[in-house]
Write a structure and sequence with these properties.
Shape: globular
Mean pLDDT: 80
Number of helices: 2
Structural class: mainly alpha
Low-confidence stretches: none
Largest sheet: none
Order of helices and strands: HH
Radius of gyration: 11 Å
Helix content: 40-55%
Distance between the termini: 19 Å
Length: 51
């Protein structure tokens, strides 16, 4: 399941998940729920998140 790049208005420049809306948090959960460990690592690198 390949995720495309985030739209310009969704790009993360500095990750502060405390500022995320509940909808954004849930969206990330849904986007990553079925990813393998390698896909999740790639997703996190592309979006600036770390697990």
């Amino acid at each position: 399941m390949e995720q495309g790049p985030l739209p310009e208005n969704e790009k993360i420049t500095s990750v502060d998940v405390e500022d995320w809306t509940p909808e954004r948090r849930f969206s990330v959960v849904l986007e990553t729920a079925t990813l393998s460990e390698m896909e999740l690592a790639d997703y996190c690198r592309r979006t600036g998140l770390f697990v």
